[in-house]
Amino acid sequence: MKLRYKVLGGLAIVFVGAVAAFGLVLSHDSPCQAAPPLAANTPSMKAIVYRCYGTPDVLKLEEIAKPTPADDRVLVKVQAASVNPLDWHYMRGKPYVMRPMAGMGRPDSILMGADFAGTVESVGKNVTRFKPGDEVFGDRNGAFGEYVSVAENGAMALKPSNMTMEQAAAVPIAGLTALQALRDKGKVQAGQKVLINGASGGVGTFAVQIAKTYGADVTGVCSTRNVEMVKSIGADHVIDYTKEDFTQGSVRYDLIIDNVGNHTLSEYRHVLTPNGGLVMVGGPSDNPWLGPLTTSAEAYFVAHFVSQKLLFMLADSNHDDLDVLRDLMQAGKLTPVIDRRYKLAETPQAIGYLEQGHAKGKVIIAVDQSAP
């Protein structure tokens, strides 16, 4: 064997070994740690935390330090929060590809939750957009707790007056995802045929309503038990996937918003117009390494060779788009669909229910039990 082949063989072995070692490090779950005691006289609050990756059993209701906002931050007393698939992805630390950001072995942040609605308790001296007493909603890590500290220019907006705290808490991540999938990625236009796959879920119920505000002809796909609900929020047509496979039909769509990922890329492309678009929001999580990104990775390569647009997206949390959603709610064009409500201590059960994949609309956490 020539020397160069020996060298190449050796390098290949080293590379494979390095990849395997990195995979072991990435997938390693460190044991849970005990909660450290709070220092004497530390202002505290109740919050759901997790100190290791795993099932909903790793979630604990604990007393932790209450946040103290800086000069450019706002302290919000949380009244309600809502659950998203993002929460259980972080809880389990899967797909593993997210761990360099979330924490290797165990989470870098013990806080859980993102969507919140509540009342401004205090503001830093440099804050001008908000004042104590303002009712607000937004996206901030730690929403499954009695208080959150939010930057003045963070993802937070004034709550619409015609919505309850629970309704407002249902909106941020799912609403932003639906809005940006349709408007920014899908470039939706009046008169287009738009299909929402997974129309009865959190993102889907918002996507149906937002697509209608753009003047689209909307088809929702859901199970039998949710057909009437999807019709009631504005869908022009509803397909019961237990009785009909839309990828085998004759209708061609200008835009598909896919919240489920239960069809192959070629099946989706089959029912798209030649220049139509597929925006992938969610997908199956059975691949522990890439999760929903598995199909999007395939789409990235295929998109270079076809005229159809094949796009994956994650929502960009920002206050400007929360203002857009607030205005739609205030105008009566967007109403959150709420499935179930849980107490803060019942957050593990709430996330377990959402993981089953059958939630109709949003699942709410009543953080402040004394709130009306």
Shape: globular
Strand segment tally: 15
Order of helices and strands: HEEEHHEEEEHHEHEHEEHEHEHEHE
Strand content is 15-25%
How much helix is in the residues? 25-40%
Largest β sheet strand count, sense and barrel closure: 7 strands, mixed
Q: Structural class from helices and strands?
A: alpha/beta
Q: Total number of helical segments?
A: 11
Mean pLDDT: 92
Residue runs with pLDDT of under 50 for 5 or more positions: none
CA distance, first residue to last residue: 80 Å
Radius of gyration: 22 Å
Account of the protein in words:
The structure is a single chain. This protein has helices at 3-27, 85-92, 99-102, 165-169, 172-185, 202-213, 227-232, 265-270, 293-302, 319-330, 347-355; strands at 44-50, 59-65, 73-83, 115-123, 135-139, 147-151, 156-158, 193-197, 217-222, 237-240, 253-258, 272-280, 309-312, 338-343, 362-366. The strands form 3 sheets. Strands 3, 4, 5, 6, 7, 14 and 15 form a 7-stranded mixed sheet that branches. With 372 residues, the protein is an alpha/beta fold. Helix 11 (347-355) links the parallel strand 14 and strand 15 (362-366). The protein is globular and about 70 Å long.
